[in-house]
Fold these 2 entries.
Entry 1:
Amino acid sequence: MSQPNAISQISAGENSVAAVARRARAASRSLARLSLEARNEILTAAAKALEGRAATILEANERDCRAAQPAVDLGTMSPAMFARLRVSERGVAQMAAQVREVARLADPLGRRLAATELDEGLILHKESCPLGVVGVIFESRPDVVPQVSALALKSGNAVILKGGAEAAHTNEALVALWRETLGQFPGVPMDAVTLLHSRADVLELLALDQDVDLIIPRGSYELVRYIMKNSRIPVLGHGEGLCHVYVDSAADIEKAIAVSYDAKVQYPAVCNAAETLLVHQGIAGTFLPPMIAKLREAGVEIRGDAKALAVVANQGVVPATERDWATEYGDLILSVKIVGSLDEAIEHINHYGSRHTDAIVTENSEAAAKFMNEVDAAGVFQNASTRFADGFRYGFGAEVGISTSKLHARGPMGLDGLTTYKYKLYGQGHTVDPYSKGEKKFTHKPLD
Amino acid sequence: MSQPNAISQISAGENSVAAVARRARAASRSLARLSLEARNEILTAAAKALEGRAATILEANERDCRAAQPAVDLGTMSPAMFARLRVSERGVAQMAAQVREVARLADPLGRRLAATELDEGLILHKESCPLGVVGVIFESRPDVVPQVSALALKSGNAVILKGGAEAAHTNEALVALWRETLGQFPGVPMDAVTLLHSRADVLELLALDQDVDLIIPRGSYELVRYIMKNSRIPVLGHGEGLCHVYVDSAADIEKAIAVSYDAKVQYPAVCNAAETLLVHQGIAGTFLPPMIAKLREAGVEIRGDAKALAVVANQGVVPATERDWATEYGDLILSVKIVGSLDEAIEHINHYGSRHTDAIVTENSEAAAKFMNEVDAAGVFQNASTRFADGFRYGFGAEVGISTSKLHARGPMGLDGLTTYKYKLYGQGHTVDPYSKGEKKFTHKPLD
């Protein structure tokens, strides 16, 4: 809804977040006018600029890494976080490659999603178009800057970025380079990409529902919860990733071990890693002992319910508590529960899950269909690791985030998540009056 | 996100709103399992029940109308609102016809929205599915009950309804009849439709983000604003309908008069009626005098800017103020502004509009394309009245509401607005590890 009075009351300076958002809104109107060729040309130029200015980026990153070193030494920054902060020469090349990848993707704009003849000469088109202005709030990894900037440009959106303080110089260098590239094209607004600097800026941004259409937080559970609680703007993201693997009575044991192991061990810190393993009682005796042995070998702590403990008594499994079923460990810890039926597994997941991604291992296609229809999650997998839930792996080219909301975008969000649609109606002076009076009738003929 | 602790802390009674929502959630799981045939069979039975029990519905409605009479006499209930409350025999027949119409619509569930081979034997489907539980809060018109119940059932959703107090008996009779119909089908939960009774119930409902997926308010600006402000659940609706008609310099005068007249006069109280007429200065001299004469004849009060006043000096036009451009009259009042260019018209609409529906009248297809691409609204029309923005007229069979949000659903919302999607991934024991190590590569081949 339009609140022109509210807008005119904002009297902040040129560099206030409100002014940034207003300029981003104006920029978004210009972006929406760019042809696919123009958008791809800019993306190619940005990829080249990344390569050509690798030294500047690495220098800025070196400053961030030096500044972070004391925190690493003190143990207040984890080695994993420090690793995500560091950008290598190969990292810059990958950024450029990703931007080129986005240039290669099909145009997400102006797609005809539906076409109907309402009556003779009265044609309705449903057509994809940009959202407008998107705010992306992320932590540490600076490669988010070119990735999100590329997706936003390709989809005709302006973007306002806020990265982690620890990556300030790197992010600044990347955004400066991107804006410079934009500036080289006549009629293309540099304000299509802006970087915010402080936490206070973020709070201001979250109130600007007139000029910002969507907020995407990427980061810790705490960050996402904070954003969701404080925003007047719609937020898409995932606060939690509590994924399950359910090993059905009709599972192939080899597949079950491979999928469960990968889902837990391959990268335990991420949201699409599994936290709970549900096992049908009919297969627990044959499946669990070798599974637990393999997981224990990889250093995984296993917390089992009473039934699981009975099955794998001597394998160093500790008792699970009610709390475990609701915990995203993000670490080499796995809770294990034995269930009496497929229904019990589905119920457990719908009660404790985070609607992110859950997998069933089974050779029984009926059981798979039931699980995949009834589990309420963005991703439901049969005989595949939960770790596949990712924009690149899904073939989206890149992702701006993963949504556990059911509205608008669900699961990994690529270009589609950054578009909306509008209805275009073409008439010949048509009025509603004769249809209301029954003098004319709608034909409602699908076209295409 | 799952908050099992929060859930278990709710210790309210069986009839609390929390308990209603929990039962609705359970019902939604059963509904999601019903085949298209089963859902359509229930709809047909509900249509028959409406016809067979018309007398009961009319009796209940008579009670509501009698109770409302004093308010009408006192002038606290408008005659228009009273008219919307009253249900005739023909009205009941129309309700039944609408339910049958929904039965005839294509299945919105299980539609394959995309299919990709990620690698050999690893297939990703994007498939439509129900949202789950939807809350619909509406005023006066009891025909919303069968309409929304039918759309919800067809799309596999449970629905929690709250109607206006003035229609309490009618709504109660309609919901009772609907639940009775559901109860006649084994395995179909009556809790698929529930009616709430008080404003306090609504406030409770708005906090239940674990069990309710979407809130759709239908009613006054105040109602919608109240819901949006107080909900922890996503809300889709429209708080305001400030629609524009822009008459371009290349407009056909006859079409311009017909479209503008229909958009203002045909039904001024509704959200898709026009509030502001923008006229290009090049055509104002020929278009405005006959237009204003026709509108004045229909009793429309005209508020013009200085330029408009100069053109139609003797036609009883009063001066408009800044406030007029931001006002949804919902009445026989129209503000008129003369603009110097198409760009000025677009800018005016993007600044003051409500992103609902805006029309251009022009024979110039380039001007139309520019207007339709750059105006930021759910509906952008060429040479057609804004009054066409409606689910029935768009061919959706019925509508649950109109959204001015850009996320999820935009414009009139039919069955599609009540669905989301999930990603189903079918593998053969696939793990992410070999792709991470570069031993395997994704094919990302589009299927179908």
Entry 2:
Amino acid sequence: MSGADRIAQLERIMDLLGFPKSAGMHLVAAEPGKVTMALAKRLDLTQFFGHFHGGVVAGLADHAAGACATSSMPDGKLAVTIEIKVNFLAPADGEEIIARAETIQAGSTIVVVKVEVASKKAGAERTCAFAIATMRAMDMPAGFL
Amino acid sequence: MSGADRIAQLERIMDLLGFPKSAGMHLVAAEPGKVTMALAKRLDLTQFFGHFHGGVVAGLADHAAGACATSSMPDGKLAVTIEIKVNFLAPADGEEIIARAETIQAGSTIVVVKVEVASKKAGAERTCAFAIATMRAMDMPAGFL
Amino acid sequence: MSGADRIAQLERIMDLLGFPKSAGMHLVAAEPGKVTMALAKRLDLTQFFGHFHGGVVAGLADHAAGACATSSMPDGKLAVTIEIKVNFLAPADGEEIIARAETIQAGSTIVVVKVEVASKKAGAERTCAFAIATMRAMDMPAGFL
Amino acid sequence: MSGADRIAQLERIMDLLGFPKSAGMHLVAAEPGKVTMALAKRLDLTQFFGHFHGGVVAGLADHAAGACATSSMPDGKLAVTIEIKVNFLAPADGEEIIARAETIQAGSTIVVVKVEVASKKAGAERTCAFAIATMRAMDMPAGFL
């Protein structure tokens, strides 16, 4: 599959029903081994101070990591998360968060991805979280997409 | 503040607007250093196979960890997450997930919490995730509750 | 291979040259899915306050996790660490540290192990670290033991 | 304290007795927020295949992270590790390992550091591990150095 086809496939995966679509996560840019996703603030995504909830920040990081790891795997494989660790570095107090995922190691079954999440407020970005995810390749189910 | 008051306070925090309430997270049981929360499945909380999304599992774990850490801190303190690590052990394919958080170390400013998340399906539970969270005490803002 | 043979094999692995043997790590107890190892204090294992160095604590936790994961795998497989996370909960200021590893999930290729490390001082134990390790099964090289 | 004084202080800390000095860890370069340390291979630092042991890799990463975090803290503060997570990306099969630590967030009490560890073999480097450490500032004991 070409790189462009792969990206189109990631977009179709993004567009499936469920948490990422309901929350409003969307693909901003993608190439093999690098994926950027963003999410606009909504009241139902916040914590008690009105910032993005940590679980939502982790969810966007996880989703970007999964798409990024999938983009580093052979055709027909899909990444599932073995584990993810997120350090929260600053309040996610912007009107949008942007997760930039990058593959740092791609083995035959295990792919490791780092993700920087920025909070965008009045046009300025600040890193608000840093994540490392270990992903495992599974066979994409027949007829999945 | 008495233990019962503390739990009532946690319930008020849970009931604030935002992601936890919108998703439907609710307190099942709580005592100082131990908190159980649950979340029923809804389509907007799932990933592509129809299981709970990893970000939602992480979000429930984080929220339970935060309440648990807060319950281990002195009155007037609120826990915020420094970092959380989640291992996904099995698909969260039940109709409900239950997070059981327990404080494993309570220092003056840092509290460490472990969380086991079970997926409940047709009445049977299976551990689907294990998390460790490092939380920091911050002053509860005046008039917060 | 019987459980007893498996333990004998772990002991032979422990006895190979290298860091674990040089440091003095030794097996205290083992059964499939549970391994306990200990290490006595020596000046060359300490940090600046005279406690066990964090790297040594992590090293013992990692080694116990590896043996534990290997004990949860089929014959002929050896565990290698994909990632380990260690929370340091109290100074490792005893004369001995003891790592108790337990498998919390054993899949076909991935095994997840938790490890509690206690510091023993004047006969009393205190938990000083908590670790989670994700291990991968590799084929044991021919003639390895 | 000037930057140069700070580096000299780090070198004195490095030179204290204990695991880092005994193992042979040494400072290669340092500036506020960036520290590089290296360690040459010795039989007593290896695992069963003759590569650097995971605990030793973690130990060097932890030590570099500690020095780096200390360099990002005010005078009179010393970094101690709250938690460290290490992903092992490739065998540490070189004759030397080099840890490059960089502060990614410096708060008033918490400093977060990332560390890339390279394995150097026949002059060529390959990343063999990636670590994230969360460090806490403690007061440097009087007369410590």
